[in-house]
Design goal:
Shape: globular
Distance between the termini: 89 Å
Strand content: 15-25%
Radius of gyration: 24 Å
Largest sheet: 8 strands, mixed
Structural class: alpha/beta
Oligomer: single chain
Number of helices: 12
Length: 387
């Protein structure tokens, strides 16, 4: 009887392997023919194109990730698929020390464009948003490391040596007693929409003062918005690697103006209120945990254009603001576009378009560069030569 049970268990196991293998090969074939997958937010590089493609299109991959993450959470493992869980449950990825020569190069390039803007009297801010890890409260498990904040500090030191300052939100939040981790998502590398409002409350009054212009004061008061929080809505870029049960799911908050707005985005053919022209509520109507782009699809409708213009038809001033940065701009730009006549965005990797003629179109410039994705990356500092 014992042998029969063992044979039966072995047979069931082999049958499952065969059936699952057949299904996976079918999914792989469909992937090669149509590039279609059920879930392909991330895939490990397994060294072989064949193995990597099979892993990308694996049958019920997301459910296996969920199961893996749940087991690791129960047994207390702090790492999964190159993602690490901090002591407070926040997820992050490793960052190694950036090459000092690369950091010095970026600081020098940034000083060149800063010098150009200063000479022409164009106000500008170089801002560093909060990183996944607080440099004042790293919450790193014992014996682990991360160098993203150290890389950022070395850049700040090198850039300030040229005589220019940095708006370092990591320091600003610490000095104001703000919980760093309340400003970043648990399962994602982005900052929250709440952080966007906090930042706008600093940037907009500063630009309005130096440009000597009025702006709609209602924009910066949260009481003038319907603040809607969608619970367990957003499984971010780190959560896609670890599943639903390893660190939980993020809530997602949107600020919906209770005052009249009229904005236009020519590149996307959108014209109307802020909701519709920039904030897209449709992704919040369902919970799609196999897609990490809640942040991108809600804020800006998933627009991946390298340049984008937002025009405020109800502006109290005629000022044009340029933002150069990465996807962190999405949380601050709704408040910026409601405060100035025009806000233009350029992705940091397209910084080579920032010629003298280009920059002189704008009244002020905001550089918004995160510490973990650009330092040492020359592509983000490809500024033209300025006479």
């Amino acid at each position: 009887m014992q042998r029969v049970r063992h044979f039966l268990q072995t047979g069931i196991f082999l049958l499952l392997v065969v059936v699952l293998g057949i299904v996976c090969m079918y999914k792989y074939g469909r992937f090669k023919l149509t590039n279609e997958t059920d879930y392909n937010e991330w895939a490990a590089d397994l060294g072989s194109r064949l193995e990597t493609d099979i892993a990308s299109s694996f049958y019920q991959k997301f459910q296996f990730v969920n199961l893996n993450g749940a087991v690791r959470s129960v047994i207390g493992q702090r790492e999964m698929n190159n993602v690490q869980k901090l002591n407070n449950g926040k997820l992050k990825m490793y960052h190694m020390p950036a090459d000092q020569e690369g950091i010095d190069h970026c600081a020098f390039q940034m000083s060149r464009i800063s010098s150009f803007l200063t000479a022409r009297g164009i106000p500008f801010i170089y801002m560093i948003p909060p990183h996944s890890i607080s440099k004042y409260d790293p919450q790193l498990p014992s014996g682990t490391f991360d160098y993203a904040n150290d890389n950022g500090d070395r850049f700040v030191e090198a850039y300030r040596a040229y005589g220019y300052d940095v708006w370092d939100l990591r320091d600003m939040m610490y000095e104001e007693g703000i919980d760093h981790y309340s400003m970043v998502y648990r399962t994602d590398h982005h900052w929250t929409t709440q952080a966007g409002l906090y930042t706008a409350q600093k940037v907009i009054p500063y630009f309005a003062e130096v440009l000597q212009c009025d702006y709609d004061s209602r924009v910066l008061d949260p009481d003038n918005y319907m603040v809607e929080t969608y619970e367990a809505q957003h499984l971010g870029s780190y959560g896609q690697r670890t599943g639903l049960y390893y660190a939980g799911i993020d809530d997602f908050t949107v600020y919906l103006p209770m005052f009249e707005t009229a904005v236009e985005c020519p590149e996307r053919g959108m014209n109307g209120s802020l909701v519709g022209a920039f904030i897209n509520m449709e992704p919040l109507m369902t919970k799609d945990y196999t897609n990490r782009y809640t942040y991108d699809y809600v804020l800006g409708g998933g627009s991946a254009v390298a340049e984008c213009t937002y025009i405020n038809h109800l502006s109290l001033n005629d000022k044009k603001i340029l933002i150069v940065g990465d996807s962190f701009y999405r949380t601050i730009i709704p408040f910026m576009m409601l405060s100035f006549q025009e806000v233009h965005y350029v992705h940091r990797n397209d910084s080579y378009v920032l010629t003298a003629e280009y920059l002189e179109r704008y009244d002020a410039v905001l550089f918004l560069y995160g510490v973990d994705t650009v330092l040492g990356g020359a592509a983000s500092y490809q500024f033209p030569y300025y006479e």
